[in-house]
Amino acid sequence: MTSLGEYALLDQSWHDVVPDAARRMLIAAAQAFADKGYHATTTRDIAARAGMSPAAVYIHYRSKEDLLFQISRIGHERSLKVLTGVQDPDPVDRMARTVASFARWHAEFRTTARVVQYELGALSPEHHAVVAELRRKIETHVRSMVEEGVRSGAFTVPDLKGTSLAVLSLCIDVARWYRPDGTRTPEQIGSLYADLVLRMLRTP
Amino acid sequence: MTSLGEYALLDQSWHDVVPDAARRMLIAAAQAFADKGYHATTTRDIAARAGMSPAAVYIHYRSKEDLLFQISRIGHERSLKVLTGVQDPDPVDRMARTVASFARWHAEFRTTARVVQYELGALSPEHHAVVAELRRKIETHVRSMVEEGVRSGAFTVPDLKGTSLAVLSLCIDVARWYRPDGTRTPEQIGSLYADLVLRMLRTP
DNA sequence: GTCTATATCCGGATAGAC
DNA sequence: GTCTATCCGGATATAGAC
């Protein structure tokens, strides 16, 4: 079950989804997909979580896969926004603040993040292509941040592309292991990760 | 499709599974589960990959879930063995070599690793408890390696448990992003990761 | 041990009333 | 827009011959 707090947070992300019933359905589907996986989730399950009949799914969505696509697309857009939203002239501070918010996002919005990261394979080829483009932008952004730090002399890395991938990977995997009932808050995870990443990248 | 090379590598892990048909079925299932996920895989699919009839699955396994459990159990045992197999008196060298083999394993045996990491939720409660115990051992081992380094003065970390989790997480997530047709070999990923982790942990 | 055939159930999607 | 009822394809697992 989902606490009211998490629901409210989820709601932020889906705020622009209208009408109301469509949004409730999307949130219900995201929770079900995150809990049990896309293929293990039935449309009856989604409808029940949204408090509606099984047929109600098809009023606002063409198919179960369409529901997944909307969650994945909006989730990727949100994640890209969090990643690129940090403005800071100093490459080191920018990296630290970006890693902190990006890792934090994967904890705080773990439900969405899990669907984003682990259900790509269930998308149709056409829908997959759309989110793949967003994923490329995410990778590119991380790499260019590392690159900037290297150019400024603050970072020294053995393998630019590989190291950037590792930084991204570290943040993303938070969605796998994070538990809301754990000892660390998303905020604390963000701080810790910013510190660890700077240690990984900084010129000795 | 799987190259002969990968098959041979897979075969190593499953070497003690007998009889032959049972092993072929297990390998077929592991590949299918890794490709499409447990719930998206049909028993017909597994049987076809093993070159047998759908009913043949039930000669050696009680159910599809039993097949998953065997893969998960053996995979966890293998992964634990790789992690704990490194002997080295120096905490820093030990950490470096362990991270290198553990990360490498998650690339080289990506097929098994993906089932191990991403299909836990499909196990029955009883079977889940068995692998959860193995997972606890893995976490504990990483933490005690970090701890030793801290005791020796070679490592300095802000949060022992959180940092250990991050090291483990970094290695595990290799199974998600690694592609056999990429530019880096599993060996190279191991080396890079050993370097990155030491930078994360070392006392400045 | 392996096969063919099939029982049985379940899930995505639709029809049509309100 | 939402419901109840239902169609129909497909999936797990079993029966029984060889």
UniProtKB/TrEMBL annotation, chains A, B:
The keyword DNA-binding applies. Pfam families: TetR_C_24, TetR_N. Residues 19-79 form the HTH tetR-type domain. Gene3D superfamilies: Tetracycline Repressor, domain 2 (1.10.357.10). InterPro entries: Homeodomain-like_sf (IPR009057), HTH-type_TetR-like_transc_reg (IPR050109), HTH_TetR (IPR001647), KstR2_TetR_C (IPR041490), Tet_transcr_reg_TetR-rel_C_sf (IPR036271). Residues 42-61 bind DNA. One of its GO terms (molecular function) is DNA-binding transcription factor activity. PROSITE patterns: HTH_TETR_2. Keywords: DNA-binding. This is TetR family transcriptional regulator.
